[in-house]
Amino acid sequence: xxxxxxxxxxxxxxLSRERTAVHAVDDVHLTLRRGRVVALVGESGSGKSxxxxxxxxxxxxxxxxxxLHGETTKVKGGKAFRSYAARVQMIFQDPFASLxxxxxxRYHLTRALKIHHNAGKSEADLENALNELLTxxxxxPPERYLDKFPHELSGGQRQRVxxxxxxxxxxxxxxxxxxxxxxxVSIRLGVLNLLRxxxxxxxxxxxxxxxxxxxxxxxxxETLVMYAGRMVEGGDSExxxxxxxxxxxxxxxxxxxxxxxxxxxxxxxxxxxxNGEPPSLIRPPSGCRFHPRCPMAMSRCSVDLPIRxxxxxxxxxxxxxxxxxEATVKEAAK
Length: 334
Ligand code: SF4
Ligand code: MG
Hints:
Domain ABC transporter: 1-253
Helix content: 25-40%
Organism: Paractinoplanes aksuensis
CATH class: Alpha Beta
Shape: globular
CATH topology: Rossmann fold
Bound molecules: iron/sulfur cluster, magnesium ion
Number of helices: 13
Order of helices and strands: EHEEHEEHEHHHHEHEHEEHHHEEH
CATH superfamily: P-loop containing nucleotide triphosphate hydrolases
CATH architecture: 3-Layer(aba) Sandwich
Strand order of the largest sheet: 6-7-8-3-9-10-12-11
Pfam families: ABC_tran, oligo_HPY
Keywords: ATP-binding, Nucleotide-binding, Transport
Distance between the termini: 38 Å
Protein name: ABC transporter ATP-binding protein
Structural class: alpha/beta
């Protein structure tokens, strides 16, 4: 998948016909499977939310392909698109913004059930379905929540409602964009555990987007790391977090205060992350996009875009970094 956003141009650029674009996502690929969580990790501005929005088809893609069960998905509009939209549901970072403040929980959930599965449900069937959705996300007894408005619930309860609404479409995949980062630290684990539980019981595929690599280790089977719009490392979560190969992944881990904590102050960790700023995506650095910040950079790094190279003995572990190309390292040592 590739996504470039055009930048509003001034008169001079218009006259010179220079095209500028934000290279938000370049050449990202990933596979989601039912019953598994894939974490997409990176700092803000790395393009990870854009990947989720592309997969949810909230934006058209600049290039690339999205396949569901091996079939290329249609772009917006039509029955095939609606079926895709039901099967691939998004959960947003801010549950308050994603729920309409003037409508009750009952309204939100009923609407999700009707949009996707309007099979002429009787009143009693609908009531059962509503109760089941709220029970699934542990908001019980359901009648305590159904007629409340979003502002009458806590942040964690609202995120549970947003999850229930997504489940109303009977999805196969959830795209969860920082689903716990706006929640109080003390309730983050509960929401992640709920998602994990739902994954098991409903055999869901989950894409978990986060800037907190420690939570990826806890929650995800596979971890992919993004930097400046590109994927730089991937593999099973244990391997990537315990034996990171890419210098950027190491930086992410080193700058987290305590890799074993989940309930720590993640936001402070993000602010503390030293060693420079992410680069402009209008003119991304040449070669490896991380080279201006990389302590290991060699001369080739600012010229050639690194290819994915297999790492060590763990199958499926790769990094896009010239350090894993023996010829490059030998040349640099000369
Ligand atoms: Fe650093 Fe070079 Fe690897 Fe990029 S390719 S991460 S600059 S060593
Ligand atoms: Mg984001």
